Amino acid sequence: MGDHEMMPHHGTAVSSSLTSAWNATGSMRRHRKMMVHNTLMHNTFFWGHKTEVLFQGWPGSSTGMYAVALTFVFSLAVLVEWFNHHFSAIKPGTNKAAAGFFQTGMYAVRSGLSYMVMLAVMSFNGGIFLAAVGGHAVGFALFGSRGKKSDGS
């Protein structure tokens, strides 16, 4: 394949281009970028507010909407940590079948939220990555760290 090529992608054309750059050791490194639905998709981390996160066209090129996307991903990661540390205990005397269905439902919700954070990070945007890691760290500090739990002593 050449430096610029068209590849089929689920019924749409995907334009791919290869660019070359010198790395720190002086050797040539090739980067691949793809255009899908007229949107540039990165395969390496990049910085900037012009990106797509989770949904086509969102947040777009608006700096304000990018800030909303960062806040959303941060909040999702905090919520995942809350689910990780608050939905494991079932009250004594609860119907075991009902408790099992409830736990299964909460596990499905937690898994779905975790996958949304993962998909957001797959935008390869550095800010989104830092928001996800920061959200997990803050969520763990609030809900999961031993320093915040009372052990009854």
TrEMBL record:
Keywords: Copper, Copper transport, Ion transport, Membrane, Transmembrane, Transmembrane helix, Transport
Bilayer-spanning residue ranges: 64-83, 115-143
Membrane recorded as keyword: yes
Zinc-finger in keyword set: no
Domain of life: Eukaryota
Family: Belongs to the copper transporter (Ctr) (TC 1.A.56) family. SLC31A subfamily.
Species annotation: Salix brachista
Membrane disposition: Multi-pass membrane protein
Compartment(s) of residence: Membrane
Major site of localization recorded for this protein: membrane
Record GO terms (molecular function): copper ion transmembrane transporter activity
Listed Pfam families: Ctr
Protein name: Copper transport protein
GO cellular component annotations of the record: plasma membrane
InterPro entries: Cop_transporter
